[in-house]
Every structure is written in C-alpha cells, then in structure tokens.
Amino acid sequence: MRFSSIPATILSLLSAWLLLPLAVHGSYFEITSPSNGTQWVNGQANPVTWEKGLLDGITSFDVELARLSQDGLLYAAKDVPADTSSLNIYLQNVPAADDYFLLFLNSTHGVMYTVSDKFSIVASSSSASSTPQPLTSAPTVSISGGPNPTNAFATTFPPSANGVLAWKTVEGPMMQMAAVTSVVLVAMLSGALAVL
Ligand SMILES: *[C@@H]1O[C@H](CO)[C@@H](O)[C@H](O)[C@H]1NC(C)=O
Ligand SMILES: *[C@@H]1O[C@H](CO)[C@@H](O)[C@H](O)[C@H]1NC(C)=O
C-alpha cells in the first residue's frame, strides 16, 4: 500500500541502479575505438576495435552509427562475428559532425549490447587533426551518405564457420542470460539518462 505513493519513475530508477552491479558483472562488451575525441575521416577506412567477454552468448552483432542531435541511423554491418575484435569502416559523403556514436546491437529485436564514446566525423583528411590508420588484418565495410530510412545494411557478414558449432550447446541458456542482461542494461541506461 505504501509503495503506491512512490512515483513509478522513481521506483524504476531505483531498481535500475540496484541492478547495476548485475549488469556490470553479467557481461563485458566495450568499444575501445573510436573513443572520446576520435576523428573519423571521409574517403578513408577508419578502425573499429572492441573487447568482449567470452561467455555472454553473443555470437554476432550489428553495427550502426547514430548522432546525438539528429534522428536516423547509418547501417554499417550486419552479423559481425563476435569472435573477431576489429573492423574498418570506409566512409563516403557521411555528414561531418562531432556527435556520432557507434552502436553494437541486435537490430532484429533492438537489443543494445554496447555504445561507443562520442566521436567526430570530418569531411576530408585536410580537416582532420590526425589520419586514422586502418587495420590491415580486419575486414572493411563501407557506408556512404546520411541516415538511411530503408534499414538496409551496407554489408552482411556470412555465418562464421568456426564458433557456431561450439556455441550450439550453450546457446539456449546463454541467450536467455544475454537477454536478461540487455534488458537490465537498457533499464540502466534509461535510468542514467533520467538522472542527467
Ligand atoms: C572527452 O574529452 C573531452 C576533452 O578532451 C573531456 O572534456 C571530456 O570530459 C571527455 N569525456 C569523457 C566521457 O571521457
Ligand atoms: C538477433 O536475434 C535473433 C533472434 O534471437 C537471431 O535470430 C539473430 O541471429 C540475432 N542477430 C545477430 C546479429 O546476432
């Protein structure tokens, strides 16, 4: 009875923060590049790197770019194998701005796995403070132009040959765990946003 007097927003905020340690220990997935202050350059391949826990059940993910100040997403790559740790993104005519984020998610059901720091995209190397070095051993995907309303990914990776079989046995329970973790993560993010 007493709880009914507590506003729902405060309650959800509280529960989001209470679950925070769970989310942090449950999975580890971090985009290490681009990071805060990184400049990506149009007309070049720009490196993306990440670090990820092994036992979170995520075998592949989709990569999108978003801007803080504008709607719309740039769809970069679908089904990136999670047992790799890097990728290059070649940019062409992508609007220059300093409020881009890279999203790793499952775009099928919209579950977010991780978000990069805010970074910039500049028009050409003449306006860049440093030149990005593409990773020679990593695959390169290209995106061109602004947000794409048709939800078409520029590149779809084929199912990875190794890893898939090994994952089969743990997939069921692990996927459930990953789903719960993602829900918690979303709750946490919305909690954090509400605080800001
Ligand atoms: C990002 O870098 C800017 C300037 O270098 C700094 O002011 C800001 O606090 C940094 N933000 C984060 C989240 O690290
Ligand atoms: C996203 O989730 C769906 C349904 O669980 C799954 O079939 C698909 O393979 C997942 N996509 C990626 C990129 O992991």
What does this protein structure show overall?
With 196 residues, this protein is of the alpha/beta class. It has one domain (2-195). Helices cover 26% and strands 34% of the residues. It is built from 3 helices and 11 strands, in the order ααβββββββββββα. Strands 2, 4, 5, 7, 8, 9 and 11 form a 7-stranded mixed beta sheet that branches. Strands 1-3-6-10 form a 4-stranded mixed beta sheet, with no helix packed on it. A hairpin with a 5-residue loop joins strand 4 and strand 5. Helix 2 packs antiparallel against helix 3 (164-195). The longest helix has 32 residues, at 164-195. The radius of gyration is 18 Å and the shape is globular. The protein starts with 7 loop residues before the first helix and ends with a helix. Bound molecules: 2-acetamido-2-deoxy-beta-D-glucopyranose (NAG) (2 copies). Residues 60-62, 79, 106, 108-109 line the site of one 2-acetamido-2-deoxy-beta-D-glucopyranose. One 2-acetamido-2-deoxy-beta-D-glucopyranose (NAG) binds next to strand 4. It comes from Heliocybe sulcata.
State which percent range the strand residues make up: 25-35%
Number of domains: 1
Rg from Cα = 18 Å
**Which structural class do you get from the secondary structure elements?**
alpha/beta
Bound molecules: 2-acetamido-2-deoxy-beta-D-glucopyranose
Q: Terminal Cα separation, in Å? A: 30 Å
**What ranges have pLDDT less than 50 throughout 5 or more consecutive residues?**
20-25, 162-170
Query: Would you report the number of β strands?
Result: 11
What is the averaged pLDDT score?
78
The best one-word shape is globular
Organism: Heliocybe sulcata
Signal peptide: 1-26
Protein name: Ser-Thr-rich glycosyl-phosphatidyl-inositol-anchored membrane family-domain-containing protein
Keywords: Membrane, Signal, Transmembrane, Transmembrane helix
